[in-house]
Amino acid sequence: MNTRREERKRAALEKQIDENLRRVYEQETQQEVPDRFLTLLERLREQE
Question: What is the 3-state secondary structure (H, E, C) of the chain?
Fold first, then answer.
């Protein structure tokens, strides 16, 4: 019986970790690209 309880706890913990990682990733991908990176990309395109 303890094994099932431990399995459920582990599954709940893994689900929580997955949700937190997904939330952080989504927040990061919604941020705008900094101007310095856009400038760098523009310079690189000009060199081509």
Answer: CHHHHHHHHHHHHHHHHHHHHHHHHHHHHCCCCCHHHHHHHHHHHHHC
Q: How far apart are the first and last CA of the chain?
A: 65
Going from N- to C-terminal start, the domains of the chain cover 3-46
Structure tokens of 7?
């399995």
Retrieve residue 21's tokens: 């990682």
Kindly tell me if the per-residue pLDDT of 44 is higher than 80: yes
Tell me how far apart the alpha carbons of residues 20 and 9 are, in angstroms, rounded to a whole number: 16
